[in-house]
């Protein structure tokens, strides 16, 4: 919905290693951007293109060129808590992280639950964010779980999906009706698979580790129960469902069965659940408090494998800005969530460097699948696709300093972490929106 | 004699020899405490502040007395009544007190990890007087001292810990300590009062009192923490007492000379029979209170020695 000015200047990127998630391969080549789209993909690293078509040339020098990331579930704190994150700062963080489309969450205060609030968001996004912004709207009014929102009007106003985010609708009848109505409009529901009563108040995943630390816990089974219910409702209503975060091994078999049965169900997971585990809570560091809580190492391994096989479709940052005050509290009282727009790519490259996921698989989950799920034609390295691209050096080492992040909030669990990978240039509709200094 | 810790936040970081060191010193303070003149001077000139964010009678009194006997200037603050009500955060409160240059800070807090958090923000030595469901190290140490004095050793004993393990920091600290000292630890509780993964702590777990108490040297009862119950962990108090309440009948399964312990305050007729609790041949509950003062004196003495060994931090 954001009006991005398309670049009028044709650009030829040569000597790139193209990360092509559709073909599932990385190959040497070149790419021509024209009129905001990918005009040509070349197999030759330095093809002959006439001066008038490619006056502007960029030598990628063997770096990776991938489709820009489509991040489902970004929280920008407008309206209500602009001191935590604004469209400007989130957009800049996204651009610096290779995220070319932010799919934003409605769990703001007030919630984004009317066409009017959505319109406000649209205007703010257009004037302030350098990347594309597509909003998710609330599924129930005020995310209170009682009455459905104006799903039709909200779709007309540009909502790409509907969700009450982490405030799970406990009343199954309300959810069933909302999903039935949404199904009639073909609207996508984004669910947070948790059994709401079982998971209430849990700050850590139950098990030996949380017991040692004396933290209030939630059974990993709450995720499986929540997913089971949501899938049953898909079967009942015919709605389209995307489970925002699958983080446990036990939730994978029901997901597998739902897909095998042909239900319109996809699932995501978060960068944090792929790269951290419950042991990271050892020092009660509240920047590691996310929702759902970090899981066991067995769960983490199972989730990585599910991303590799494609059972889990999407990886998100679940970008959740929190100010210092809401994190400077005892663990159980501190707010949940971590920022991730800017750190997602280097953090996930850990899995690439460790050999657990290759780049086409990573970008299938980061770009191609989320774009497909939302009916977007980006996320691909193909002629005619939007020129939403990220050029990155996968090897460049650095130590993350949270105070250098572009987000207003600095709540990353990776402060001081040794990471590899640097975004060099991000293009949205052919225009560079981030260029590394 | 080594005790290389700046704070006493839990049993987890302590080595067995450090535990023995602390108990040896505590033994000497027990002797001192039984004399007419009970004064020592290990904390002379030092300031001790007790911050209790959760109500406590015996632990707070014990720390206060321990500090006073050692010559410290002791101040106790009931935190529920003060700035917390005004919305001040834990860290702000800690910073404020820190500015008064205390040497020892004794802290109890309802959230697990809160005392760790606080210790990172202050310059003085911090003693955890209980944080959430996490740890209560001085309680485990006083229990260890009581056991060692009664049984003559602190290893190769069978210790049954019975009751609300799930919500108990006392249980966690005791399990860690007794395991470190190479004892056989049995946990006896209904499944709803056992935390997840507890069987991985090197303990035996049973839901049956008879089985759990069999040949035990020590029977440690826990308070059924009614205030911690979200509701619905047990069907009723009377069913709990019937199945898990300790009385002379159930105690027969333990060794003949088994001792009965309870961290207090007791719910007579819920987890323990009143007559048994008062039986001076079996119950060491009063002795535990006495050991509490001695152990806290020893802990503060060791931390103060480490404090004095460090150069004074002069503010500019």
TrEMBL record, chain A:
MF annotations from Gene Ontology: allantoinase activity; dihydroorotase activity; metal ion binding
Residues annotated as transmembrane: none
Protein name from the UniProt record: Dihydroorotase
Highest taxon, organism lineage: Bacteria
An example Gene Ontology biological process: pyrimidine nucleotide biosynthetic process
Species, as recorded: Roseivivax halodurans JCM 10272
Key words, A-Z: Hydrolase, Pyrimidine biosynthesis, Zinc
Presence of keyword Repressor: no
Record-annotated Amidohydrolase domain positions: 354-434
Residue stretches making up the Dihydroorotase catalytic domain: 62-248
Any one Pfam family match given in the protein's UniProt record, by short name: Amidohydro_3
CC terms in the record's Gene Ontology section: cytoplasm
Enzyme Commission number(s): 3.5.2.3
TrEMBL record, chain B:
Pfam families noted in UniProt: OTCace, OTCace_N
Chain sites annotated for binding L-aspartate: 86, 169, 223
Pathway: Pyrimidine metabolism; UMP biosynthesis via de novo pathway; (S)-dihydroorotate from bicarbonate: step 2/3
Segments forming domain Aspartate/ornithine carbamoyltransferase carbamoyl-P binding: 6-148
Catalysed conversion reaction: carbamoyl phosphate + L-aspartate = N-carbamoyl-L-aspartate + phosphate + H(+)
GO process annotations (BP): 'de novo' pyrimidine nucleobase biosynthetic process; 'de novo' UMP biosynthetic process; amino acid metabolic process
Enzyme nomenclature, EC number: 2.1.3.2
Annotated carbamoyl phosphate binding sites: 58-59, 108, 136, 139, 264-265
Transferase listed as a keyword: yes
Swiss-Prot/TrEMBL keywords: Pyrimidine biosynthesis, Transferase
GO CC entries: cytosol
Top-level taxon: Bacteria
Keyword set includes Repeat: no
Record SUPFAM superfamilies: Aspartate/ornithine carbamoyltransferase (SSF53671)
Main EC class the enzyme belongs to: transferase
GO molecular function, one term: aspartate carbamoyltransferase activity
Domain Aspartate/ornithine carbamoyltransferase Asp/Orn-binding: 157-302
Family according to the record: Belongs to the aspartate/ornithine carbamoyltransferase superfamily. ATCase family.
Annotated function: Catalyzes the condensation of carbamoyl phosphate and aspartate to form carbamoyl aspartate and inorganic phosphate, the committed step in the de novo pyrimidine nucleotide biosynthesis pathway.
Assembly notes: Heterododecamer (2C3:3R2) of six catalytic PyrB chains organized as two trimers (C3), and six regulatory PyrI chains organized as three dimers (R2).
Name the UniProt record assigns to this protein: Aspartate carbamoyltransferase
Species whose genome carries this gene: Roseivivax halodurans JCM 10272
Gene: pyrB
């Amino acid at each position: 919905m954001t009006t991005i000015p398309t670049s009028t200047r044709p650009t030829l990127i040569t000597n790139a290693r193209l990360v092509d998630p559709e073909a599932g391969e990385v190959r040497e080549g070149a790419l021509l951007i024209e009129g905001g789209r990918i005009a040509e993909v070349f197999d030759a690293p330095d093809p002959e293109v006439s001066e008038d078509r490619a006056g502007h040339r960029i030598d990628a020098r063997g770096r990776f060129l991938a489709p820009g990331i489509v991040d489902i579930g970004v929280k920008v704190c407008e309206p209500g808590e602009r001191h935590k994150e604004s469209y400007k700062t989130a957009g800049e963080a996204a651009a610096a992280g290779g995220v070319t489309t932010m799919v934003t969450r409605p769990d703001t205060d007030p919630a984004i639950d009317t066409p009017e609030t959505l319109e406000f968001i649209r205007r703010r996004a257009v004037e302030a964010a350098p990347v594309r912004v597509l909003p998710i709207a609330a599924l129930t009014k005020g995310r209170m779980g009682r009455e459905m929102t104006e799903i039709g009007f909200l779709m007309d106003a540009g909502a790409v999906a509907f969700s009450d985010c982490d405030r799970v609708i406990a009343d199954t009848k309300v959810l069933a009706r909302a999903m039935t109505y949404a199904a009639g409009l073909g609207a996508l529901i984004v669910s947070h698979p948790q059994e709401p009563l079982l998971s209430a108040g849990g700050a850590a995943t139950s098990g030996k580790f949380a017991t040692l630390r004396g933290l209030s816990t939630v059974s990993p089974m709450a995720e499986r129960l929540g997913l089971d219910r949501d899938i049953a409702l898909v079967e009942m209503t015919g709605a389209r469902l995307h489970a925002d975060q699958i983080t446990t091994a036990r939730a994978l078999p029901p997901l597998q069965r739902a897909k095998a049965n042909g239900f319109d169900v996809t699932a995501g997971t978060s960068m944090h659940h792929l790269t951290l585990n419950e042991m990271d809570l050892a020092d009660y560091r509240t920047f590691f408090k996310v929702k759902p809580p970090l899981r066991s190492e067995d769960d983490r391994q199972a989730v990585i494998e599910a991303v590799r096989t494609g059972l889990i479709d999407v990886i998100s940052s679940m970008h959740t800005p929190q100010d210092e005050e809401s994190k400077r509290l005892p663990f159980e009282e501190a707010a949940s969530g971590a920022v991730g727009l800017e750190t997602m790519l280097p953090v996930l490259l850990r899995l690439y460097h460790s050999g657990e996921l290759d780049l086409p698989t990573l970008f299938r989950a980061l770009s191609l699948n989320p774009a497909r799920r939302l009916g977007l034609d980006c996320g691909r390295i193909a002629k005619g696709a939007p020129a939403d691209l990220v050029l990155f050096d996968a090897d460049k080492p650095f130590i993350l300093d949270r105070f250098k992040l572009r987000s207003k909030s600095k709540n990353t669990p990776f402060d001081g972490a040794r990471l590899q990978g640097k975004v060099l240039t991000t293009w949205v509709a052919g225009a560079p929106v981030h260029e590394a200094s | 004699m080594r005790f290389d810790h700046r704070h006493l936040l839990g049993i987890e970081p302590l080595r067995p020899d450090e535990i023995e060191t602390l108990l040896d010193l505590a033994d000497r303070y027990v002797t001192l405490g039984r004399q007419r003149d009970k004064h020592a001077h290990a904390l002379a000139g030092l300031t001790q502040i007790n911050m209790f964010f959760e109500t406590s009678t015996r632990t707070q009194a014990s720390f206060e007395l321990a500090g006073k006997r050692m010559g410290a200037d002791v101040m106790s603050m009931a935190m529920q009544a003060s700035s917390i009500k005004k919305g001040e955060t834990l860290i702000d409160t800690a910073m404020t007190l820190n500015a008064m240059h205390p040497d020892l800070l004794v802290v109890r807090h309802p959230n697990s990890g809160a005392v760790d958090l606080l210790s990172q923000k202050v310059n003085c030595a911090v003693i955890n007087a209980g944080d959430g469901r996490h740890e209560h190290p001085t309680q485990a140490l006083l229990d260890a001292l009581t056991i060692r004095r009664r049984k003559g050793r602190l290893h190769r004993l069978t210790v049954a810990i019975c009751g609300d393990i799930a919500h108990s920091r006392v249980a966690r600290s005791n399990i860690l300590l007794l395991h470190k000292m190479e004892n056989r630890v049995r946990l006896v509780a209904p499944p709803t009062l056992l935390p997840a993964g507890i069987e991985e702590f090197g303990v035996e777990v049973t839901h049956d009192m008879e089985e759990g108490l069999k040949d035990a040297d020590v029977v440690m009862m826990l308070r059924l923490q009614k205030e911690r119950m979200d509701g619905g962990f047990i069907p009723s108090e009377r069913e709990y007492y019937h199945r898990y309440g300790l009385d002379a009948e159930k105690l027969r399964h333990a060794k003949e000379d088994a001792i009965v312990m309870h961290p207090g305050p007791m719910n007579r007729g819920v987890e323990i029979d009143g007559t048994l609790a008062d039986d001076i041949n079996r119950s060491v509950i009063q002795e535990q209170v006495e050991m509490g003062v001695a152990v806290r004196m020893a802990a503060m003495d060791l931390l103060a020695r480490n404090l004095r060994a460090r150069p004074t931090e002069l503010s500019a």
